[in-house]
């Protein structure tokens, strides 16, 4: 299926039309899908409650659009190409016909085990084809999937299962990532000691690692498949039926379950996939994200498959067996569109341009970037050494809550500028506001990035706590969705995302709340209080700097730091580990007791010379001590 927009002139016209007639614009796009019943109302919304409903009254099954709809025209075309962690293991190619069969079989396994429409299913799997199949099998029967990234700890997994009351867990014996094997069934078992709602656990054999199976609860994936056939009639759901929950961190407290619904998400991921990447029939598309994140949901599974594309799924890491792996995979399959993160680019850049230069990568046509701001240097490296200056780079800005890309160039159509996400997609209405919430008009300005009108792919609520959703996203500036990002609109009207202005840290494209990490650090028996900030890191974009106050001065600081790291590993996962931990005797606080993170951020950045006004601090002396300690840490 082709892109709708093929020239910049058309983009401008479509954009104009989408803002003036949003309902007609999206209805025109939605009509191309298979609906079992057409909607009564295109859009019903207010950002006050908030309440957002798209295609209300419409009924459908998204997997009919992902699979059944394509069988006649492209049944034999590869839907998923899977490249294993180990290049010597054989790969797997699933055509649309084969994928359809596998999804139906697994849907029948879920039904057979008592999962029905509206039930939540937790998916904790490595990047294997069964992961994509699992998402679609849930959607096929109207169950709500909640994928938990394989790098999260047992505690984090249990918290997510409990928050949404999942009935079933899908996992594997263990997973391969580079040279490491991770015992995910063992981690799941630990989580399962505190998850009363889980009735059944389906276990995929991936590594052959020995695992313990609990009688009556744990089932082998392959055994269950033997019990079912491949006939499965997709269940009908309402357009606003939840499709999935995905947990993400905010500036306060524990991660929240972002809820996406069916109809709008379908329309939006398909539309943005086809237009941003300008996908051409038959092309090989590769997004290197993990399906445990929104990028994988929207742009490995749903978007590409809705569009009838061939999507490549990679189980491994960019540096295994060596730092040429990505380029080798691109050559092996003739990848045309490559979508990755700035962190991956920077980490490969560190191995030198000779590595990508060993590969011609002639098939590449479009490059994409996602997850964090891309610095100019990495942008140029990507452009020169990967794209060989003949591939447009689409720097796509969006968030878990958004469902799909909001601000991005359209490949080869919109002009590009390093570090800029450029222009909003049709239907997307960004505004910049000052700290008082006043909309900043005109160009050459900077402010807090908000959206003033809904788009079909946006989230609807946070699971089980609508008030929190309102508070977090819709209360800061009345009648606007606040993204948490700072943003610049340059003289020409192009957008540049400046990074988070709230207490969210983006480490290698992974989002963490400062409070979430502080809570994990505070679990250490000797820690009374901690404060966490982000600071610039050459490869990760941002890294975590933790300041901790101990109850007793630690006898062995190295050991204390190791134990704090253990605590973070246990409660969140190794991905949230602080890069630096500094023991302090106090924190810079205002008289009302609020930690002045601005000061801590400056110290972490090494900018100790200009800390701004510290006169309102309760104890200005503590700043000198922290500064001295920070210097010693370097
Ligand atoms: C935050 C959202 C949705 C993609 C995966 C991350 C940052 C994302 C960009 C970009 C600058 C970006 C923002 C945003 N971000 N893409 N192209 N340029 N910043 O999703 O975990 O929900 O994080 O990632 O700060 O708010 P996420």
From TrEMBL:
<protein>
    <recommendedName>
        <fullName>Acetate--CoA ligase</fullName>
        <ecNumber>6.2.1.1</ecNumber>
    </recommendedName>
</protein>
<dbReference type="InterPro" id="IPR025110">
    <property type="entry name" value="AMP-bd_C"/>
</dbReference>
<keyword id="KW-0547">Nucleotide-binding</keyword>
<dbReference type="InterPro" id="IPR032387">
    <property type="entry name" value="ACAS_N"/>
</dbReference>
<dbReference type="GO" id="GO:0005524">
    <property type="term" value="F:ATP binding"/>
</dbReference>
<dbReference type="InterPro" id="IPR042099">
    <property type="entry name" value="ANL_N_sf"/>
</dbReference>
<dbReference type="InterPro" id="IPR011904">
    <property type="entry name" value="Ac_CoA_lig"/>
</dbReference>
<keyword id="KW-0067">ATP-binding</keyword>
<dbReference type="Pfam" id="PF16177">
    <property type="entry name" value="ACAS_N"/>
</dbReference>
<dbReference type="GO" id="GO:0003987">
    <property type="term" value="F:acetate-CoA ligase activity"/>
</dbReference>
<dbReference type="GO" id="GO:0016208">
    <property type="term" value="F:AMP binding"/>
</dbReference>
<dbReference type="GO" id="GO:0019427">
    <property type="term" value="P:acetyl-CoA biosynthetic process from acetate"/>
</dbReference>
<feature type="domain" description="AMP-dependent synthetase/ligase">
    <location>
        <begin position="68"/>
        <end position="454"/>
    </location>
</feature>
<dbReference type="Pfam" id="PF13193">
    <property type="entry name" value="AMP-binding_C"/>
</dbReference>
<dbReference type="InterPro" id="IPR020845">
    <property type="entry name" value="AMP-binding_CS"/>
</dbReference>
<feature type="domain" description="AMP-binding enzyme C-terminal">
    <location>
        <begin position="516"/>
        <end position="594"/>
    </location>
</feature>
<keyword id="KW-0007">Acetylation</keyword>
<dbReference type="InterPro" id="IPR000873">
    <property type="entry name" value="AMP-dep_synth/lig_dom"/>
</dbReference>
<keyword id="KW-0436">Ligase</keyword>
<feature type="domain" description="Acetyl-coenzyme A synthetase N-terminal">
    <location>
        <begin position="11"/>
        <end position="66"/>
    </location>
</feature>
<dbReference type="Pfam" id="PF00501">
    <property type="entry name" value="AMP-binding"/>
</dbReference>
<dbReference type="InterPro" id="IPR045851">
    <property type="entry name" value="AMP-bd_C_sf"/>
</dbReference>
<comment type="similarity">
    <text>Belongs to the ATP-dependent AMP-binding enzyme family.</text>
</comment>
